[in-house]
Amino acid sequence: MTNRFQPHILVLPEDDANSQLANGFLLDLHQAALRKIQVLPEAGGWIAVLDTFESDHVADMDRYTKGFMFLLIDFDGDEERGAYARRKIPERLRERVFILGARTDPESVKKALGPYESIGRALAEDCREGTDRTWGHELLRHNANEIGRLRQYVRAILFSS
Amino acid sequence: MRFEIDVELNGVLHEYVIAFELEEGLKEVRVREEMLAVGGSPIYARAQSQVEFAQNRGAPTNGVTVEGFSIDWHLVALPILQEESRKDPLFIFKQWLASMLILGPIPSLISGDSNQETLQPDVPVTNFAAWFSGLLAHAPSAYSKIDAYLKQVMPDLVDIKNPVVGKDSRSLVVQFAAGRGSPLTQESLSVPFEDLSDGEKCFMICALVLAANAAYGPVLCFWDEPDNHLAMSEVGHFVLALRKAFQDGGQFIATSHNPEAIRRFSEENTLLLHRKSHLEPTTVRKLSDVQFSGDLVGALIRGDIEP
Q1: Which of B114, B196, B239, B268 has the most CB atoms in a 10 Å sphere around its CB?
Q2: B267 close contact with A: CB closer than 8 A
Q3: What residues make up the domain containing B300?
Q4: What's the rounded Cα separation, in Å, for the pair B124 and B306?
Q5: Structural contact between residues B77 and B97, judged by C-beta atoms closer than 8 angstroms
Q6: A20 contacts in B (CB within 8 Å)?
Q7: Three-state DSSP string of B126-153
Q8: Final residue belonging to a domain, choices B82, B98, B114
């Protein structure tokens, strides 16, 4: 299991599609890094992600201070959703929580870029290499601020050799 | 019944086909057709009892035959045909078949004792210790791969020893360290392999699979329900470790009924197997061809996947 007393990341996806993106992301990591990140069962909608985070993970994040969370949600073309979701995260945890997702939905990203796992791998490669070949796609580039923070806080956990 | 295997080995497509028939009134199936082709050129082709070889098997030509012979219709030709060298496509393909790992471990039957070495574990992996010995005899550096994986899942592992315990026998012993700040007075604990938990034995098997693929791969590993015996928090890590290890060579295929194991695959690499009755064959369908609403695991649990 993931050692919760060491730096680690929990990924809470909204649905199957986001979970498959996460699978691809993990498959690009080094074998040893796989135990520092865990994909949780899909919540069943973006509101459920926020509700599950609040009910199941806020207390845990207070307890395990080296833990980070990726909340994978669909923005469904709603430009305010990111800000709304962020307001749902307690101020003290905001630095350790990342809200990421497709501007519309993962199905559109899949149509544009290929299978979910391939996209996930490419996103991880961008994080590792410091590039934005895939994160820079028009359906993903709104995540730029979160990716910047992610590189600052999380890159060393997942991509250090 | 017709079976076809297409596999890319050393960058070249190897195609093997075998078809069986059951003549009305007979009790035994017999071989109707058999063929091995490499890079599109037949190495040998067989129709019923007549086998014909292509010229110069090391560098296949376009199916020019120079020799042929007859064999019993009930015998498969592949294991009988003699390889000419290690470069012979027959040898390469048969080696790949032989190194295939087909696993359905029964941990309670796995002991740490061995009196021989092998690179071919049996399906329940009861010869784990012989496989461990054979793998390290074949490639001593494989231990570092085994050690690296096991120390990720069992951080208190010190090492695995395989001392001689009789004239021709060895017995695996696993050593664990007491953690820092532990109230235990002893510094380490040696555990006979058979006393490990079922899940720990599966970690050991996984470590050998990863090391085998690196040492004598690429191998095809088929693992029947790899999630069996594991703690729920380990299933995802376990499946992803295997998938990751086979990304750059070899192939990993798993069957599962476990939600977490199923979630760690995606729609492009998940097949749904279904059998309507014992009298009908199992159907295999891509997930993209299956109708369901909501998430896959939820639909499977509800039994809402259309048959």
Answers
A1: B239
A2: yes
A3: 268-307
A4: 33
A5: no
A6: 266-267
A7: CCHHHHHHHHHHHCCCHHHHHHHHHHHH
A8: B98
Helices (H), chain B: 89-98, 128-138, 142-153, 198-216, 232-245, 259-263, 296-302
Q: Using a CB–CB cutoff of 8 Å, tell me whether B151 touches chain A.
A: no
Q: In whole angstroms, how far apart are CA B45 and each of B1, B48, B49, B87?
A: 17, 10, 11, 19
CA distance A84 to A157: 28
Whether the Cβ atoms of residue A61 and residue A69 lie closer than 8 Å to each other: yes
Q: Which residues contact A122 (CB under 8 A, 6 or more apart)?
A: A24, A113, A133, A134
Same domain? B134 vs B236: yes
- pTM assigned to the model: 0.90
Q: Say if residue B301 is in the same domain as residue B256.
A: no
Q: pLDDT digit string (tens) for B106-135?
A: 999 999 999 999 999 999 999 999 999 999
Q: How far apart are the first and last CA of chain A?
A: 20
- Report the alpha-carbon distance of residue A73 to residue A92 in Å, rounded: 21
B170 touching A (Cβ < 8 Å)? no
Query: B interface mutation test: which of A2, A6, A16, A74 has the most B CBs within 10 A?
Result: A16
Would you call A24 and B260 a contact, using CB atoms and an 8 Å cutoff? Answer: no
CATH code of the domain covering residue B225: 3.40.50.300
Integer Cα distance of A67 and B150 in angstroms: 23
Summarize pLDDT for B207-249 with one digit per residue, the tens: 999 999 999 988 999 999 999 999 999 999 999 999 999 998 8
Same domain membership, residue B233 and residue B87: no
Say yes or no: B246 and B174 in one domain: yes
Q: Is the ipTM value over 0.90, yes or no?
A: yes
Residue A87 pLDDT more than 70? yes
A14, A159 in Cβ contact below 8 A? no
Contact at CB, A1 and B233, closer than 8 angstroms: yes
pLDDT of residue A100: 97
- Domain ends where: B65, B98, B131? B98
Give dist(CA B216, CA B278) in Å, integer: 39
Task: Say whether both B168 and B24 belong to one domain.
Answer: no
Number of domains in chain B: 3
Tell me, yes or no, whether B32 and B133 share the same domain: no
The values of phi and psi at residue B6, to 5°, are -115, 120
Q: Which two tokens stand for residue A119?
A: 């996209």
Looking at the structure, do residues B244 and B115 belong to the same domain, yes or no? yes
